[in-house]
Amino acid sequence: MKYEPVDFDRLLGTSGFSDKLLKDHFTLYQGYVANTNKLYESEHSEDKRRFGWEFNGMRLHEYYFGNMVKDGPEGKGNDLSIKISENFGTEKSWEESFKNIGKIRGIGWALLSYDPLGDRLFNIWVNEHDGGNLTGSVPLLVMDLFEHAYLADYGLKREGYVAAFLKAVDWRVVSERLEAATSRELESQNA
User: Fold this and answer.
1) CA separation for the pair 82, 91 (Å, rounded)
2) What are the pLDDT digits (tens) for 20-56?
3) Hey, what domains does the chain have and what are their CATH numbers?
4) What is the pTM of this model?
């Protein structure tokens, strides 16, 4: 079985993101898909060591592009808003925390993740692709913080990119991810 790249051209024209930046980013993502396929087939141990990097690079980009929408965000679903308020005090406190993670120096990812066993949300920094993910947690909102995600449009002003990203979040998708994660947890408890 081969992984196929997802077509994210629907994001072209998104406010705050040039089409050139997005097309370059899509090409980078397609490289992760190609390398995941190549390493999956390989029998060399060193290639297997790199598999997690390529696979997570592929998946994190799919979450990232998948939680963006061209025409601006809709409101958060009620369950997501309640869960954010329960875990961060207020939605504003959550957003400030997420923005602060987005300002951390270095390359990586900012994630809002859900731990189904603890029934908790976390804002986390994932360093690189294969280090820092919380085992068993479900990524709900994923923001790419590698330079390729913003440098062409924002230079070193990452705050502008973070603000543009938050204006392009598809909260419907983020809410659906939480709903799917909580319903899987309920199903496993009832099994």
Assistant:
1) 9
2) 999 999 999 999 999 999 998 888 877 788 888 999 9
3) 18-191 (3.55.40.20)
4) 0.90
